[in-house]
């Protein structure tokens, strides 16, 4: 009978942890060696140490190909950083443009009210100047003027 420490779930966790530790050790070996020689030497060393030995023996060519041609960690990180930066810039511009539009709408309403314009005329003015459908212009007018002193 197995103790509670050796249930099927714990055995699977142990095996998975061992596999991931092997992958980590493999990549650590690659980083210690110049790139040109790294993959061959790392594969040989890992097989010699019993790190992912069976896997590396069966898939040696594929592993070498993936590491040398398909995946460049630094390039991947640079691309991810650039994409994140661009997303942040785009989001910032979008936010800034929305803030500026809101400021211009407030200003336009204030000026039109100062001229004594009626609500319907101001809404028509907003629709024309900001190229908004009349319903959207009305919604903006009501949102901005509702309970606020302009």
Keywords:
about 150 residues; mainly alpha; 2 domains; 6 helices; rod-shaped; disordered N terminus
Sheet/helix structural class: mainly alpha
Helical content, roughly?
A: over 70%
Q: Helix count?
A: 6
Ends apart, CA distance between termini: 80 Å
**Quaternary:** single chain
| Helix-strand pattern | HHHHHH
Low-confidence stretches: 1-13
How many separate domains make up the residues? Answer: 2
* Shape type: rod-shaped
Q: What composes the largest sheet?
A: none
- Tell me, rounded to a whole number, the average pLDDT: 79
Number of strands: 0
Strand percent estimate: under 5%
Query: What's the alpha carbon Rg, rounded to whole Å?
Result: 32 Å
Question: What is the secondary structure topology, with strand pairs?
Answer:
Layout: H1 8-31, H2 35-49, H3 53-70, H4 73-114, H5 119-129, H6 134-145
Structure notes:
- This protein is mainly α and 150 residues long.
- It has two domains: 4-71, no CATH class; 75-145, no CATH class.
- It contains six helices and no strands.
- Helix 1 runs antiparallel to helix 2, helix 2 (35-49) packs antiparallel against helix 3 (53-70) and helix 5 (119-129) crosses helix 6.
- It starts with 7 loop residues before the first helix and ends in a 5-residue tail after the last helix.
- Residues 1-13 have low confidence and may be disordered.
């Amino acid at each position: 009978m197995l103790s509670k420490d050796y249930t099927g779930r714990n055995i699977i966790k142990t095996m998975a942890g061992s596999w991931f530790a092997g992958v980590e050790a493999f990549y650590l070996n690659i980083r210690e060696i110049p790139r040109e020689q790294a993959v061959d030497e790392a594969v040989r060393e890992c097989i010699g140490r019993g790190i992912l030995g069976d896997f590396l023996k069966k898939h040696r060519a594929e592993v070498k190909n993936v590491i040398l041609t398909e995946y460049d960690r630094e390039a991947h990180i640079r691309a991810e950083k650039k994409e994140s930066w661009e997303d942040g810039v785009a989001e910032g511009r979008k936010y800034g443009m929305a803030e500026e539009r809101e400021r211009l709408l407030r200003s336009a309403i204030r000026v039109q009210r100062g001229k004594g314009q009626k609500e319907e005329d101001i809404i028509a003015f907003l629709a024309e100047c900001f190229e908004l459908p009349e319903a959207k212009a009305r919604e903006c007018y009501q949102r901005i003027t509702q309970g606020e002193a302009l």
